[in-house]
Amino acid sequence: MTSEQTARAAAKADRRQSLLAAAAGLFADRGFTSVRLEDLGAACGVSGPAVYRHFPGKTAVLGELLLQVSQDLLDGAHRVAAAEDGAGEALAALVRFQTDFALSHRDVIAVQGREMRHLEPDVRAEVVRLQRDYIEVWAGQLRLLHPDEDHGTAVFRTQAALGLVNSTPHSVRRSPSEQRGRRALLEGMALSALLAGSEAR
């Protein structure tokens, strides 16, 4: 591949990521069904038909957005957990990781919660699989910390903590000062949800 071809490929990849970022914002603000490809193109400074150079349609944009974020979260969770020495430290690090994501990717969180039904069935199944694998990383650390606890309870604890983290950022203003002030509180609440009642055993 020549340097010119490499530059073109990089520019195309950048444009694709720009379209995905714009789609997250538009889908979150207006809802998937209310956004046209022309809207998506306009948000990135291109025509609606130009979007077809990157995606075959709006549903494909949604699918790529949610597949990418689900894979990124799973990969990140594995890295975060592997970097810690114990299960307790890994769980605290996972909470920080998810909180960082939720506060910096509010639009994606909103789209993930509302628009899954619009995915193609095979794409939806893959997104669900990735999300389950992500939950399993957390549940696995909980089982290491409390081997006597059953798998279903560990999954339930994880879902409760993730639900708390993912829902709260919508009520936090976007100002950096408020985010800093609420981050520690949110992390502490999520960790408490993960470990609630375990101290008594």
TrEMBL record:
Task: Check the record and name the InterPro entries matching this protein.
Answer: Homeodomain-like_sf (IPR009057), HTH-type_TetR-like_transc_reg (IPR050109), HTH_TetR (IPR001647), KstR2_TetR_C (IPR041490), Tet_transcr_reg_TetR-rel_C_sf (IPR036271)
Q: What is this protein called?
A: TetR family transcriptional regulator
Which residues, as ranges, make up the DNA-binding region of this protein? 36-55
Annotated signal sequence range: none
Spell out the PROSITE patterns in the cross-references. HTH_TETR_2
Q: Name one GO molecular function term.
A: transcription cis-regulatory region binding
Q: Which residues form the HTH tetR-type domain?
A: 13-73
Keyword annotations: DNA-binding
Residues annotated as coiled-coil are none
Q: PANTHER family per the record?
A: HTH-TYPE TRANSCRIPTIONAL REGULATOR RUTR (PTHR30055), TRANSCRIPTIONAL REPRESSOR MCE3R (PTHR30055:SF237)
Judging by the UniProt lineage, the source's domain of life is Bacteria
Organism source for this protein? Answer: Citricoccus muralis
Please give one Pfam family short name: TetR_N
